[in-house]
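Dear colleague,

Thank you for sharing your sequence with our group. We've completed the structure prediction you requested, and as agreed, I am returning the results in plain text so they can be pasted directly into your records. Please verify that the sequence below matches your submission; if there's any discrepancy, let me know and we will rerun it promptly.
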Amino acid sequence: MNKVLLIVFAMGLSLGFSWQASTVSVSADTDFEVWESEEVHGKKGGYYKSEALLKLKAEELGIETEGKDAKTLAKEVAEAKVQQAAEELGIELEGKDFEELAKEVHHQKVMKKATELGIETDGKDPKMLAKEVHETMVKQKAEELGIPVEDKDIKKLKREVMETYIKNEADMLGIDTEGKGPGEITKEIHEQKIYQSAVTLGIDTKDKNAEQLLDEIIAEHADEAKELKIFPFEDRHH
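Please find the predicted structure tokens below.
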């Protein structure tokens, strides 16, 4: 499966489908973490494509950023987010490494989501329960998007849901999708969201690409962008 599609769609889930069209995930929301696999959830590093956004997240978590490269910061942010989630869930931290703690956090979030979905949890193997919750979420989103679910392989259905959602978002933004793959469409959505935010914030966009504008938004206008709830802070969960 295309990793970019998985990430951007999972972000949509984490925002109740008021989707942020970005490959940058800043949310530790339950839906995102349940949608992704336990293996992905337990990896250090995350999906930060903007170093400015990564640094901001690190600072929010009380992590010292001076003199650290992006790889180190991403690792520390991942560890801090898992520890924070574990504390919120009442999980004992002592004597547990990152992978073990991440697995417990993921399972607790799966359990919570299962309860929300009305799925019985008693006596079920954690991996099988996670699979059941995941498939239920995929089918729910498919139905919301008007996609038939009968007799469809779950992997194919998930891809169809993700691609349909991305195309719908592009249509809303007036982006031409003809002859373009999901990755290219996602990139265009991402860039348009950034330019829209930059204009709203009064940033001079001349001769600046999307990455440069995003870095400027984060570094110099983060508080205002948060207040206005514009990308990359629209309906952001904390």
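Summary note from our side: The radius of gyration is 18 Å.

Kind regards,
the structure core
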